[in-house]
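Possible regression after last week's pipeline update?

I re-ran a chain I had predicted before the update to compare outputs. Posting the input and the new output here so someone can diff against the archived version. Not blocking, just want to make sure nothing changed silently.
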Amino acid sequence: MINLRARLLIGCCTLPVLLAGCGSQDAAVDTNVPAASTAAPNPNAEFTAAVTVGNTAAPARVQFRLGARPAAGEPLPVSVRVLPTANVDRLQVFFETEPGVAFVDESQSTFVVDRLGSGTAHSHELQVLPQKDGIYLLKVTVMADSSGSSKVSEFAIPLLVGSTLPPAAPAPATPPAPAGG
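New output (post-update):
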């Protein structure tokens, strides 16, 4: 579990740096482009893959989307999609929180779907309540039953609540140019 936390912390710390340019308005926008040429929005673009814990041959993929920036004391909507990698007779999904995060409605912490085809997404909505700033994991356990056998895999959804990251270090000063060029 320590290794998972370390990997998630490193990944979460580098994510803001990688996303710093996202949404930038610096690029010129051509307003003469006809509306018919704009591409349809990609529904997958809003979802992020949950982190697979342990077994890489998971019976399903788990994706999530947070409804808001996680803040202590504020309910956080979480949208989850589960996509089996093969046809399943039954798919059971269980959510578990860590201390510091609670379910708003405990009945949302599990669901069961019968007869789901490979790659067919099943969506589930839940709300959690972070109680204080910190880095937490929402654990997702997926159990897929098909042809008399069961496969279980675990995933983690990282929750960075509040201002959990230190401020970015200032850029180093550039040395003066050599004289006598």
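Follow-up from reviewer: compared with the archived run. Residues 62 and 82 are 5 Å apart (CA to CA). Marking as no regression found.
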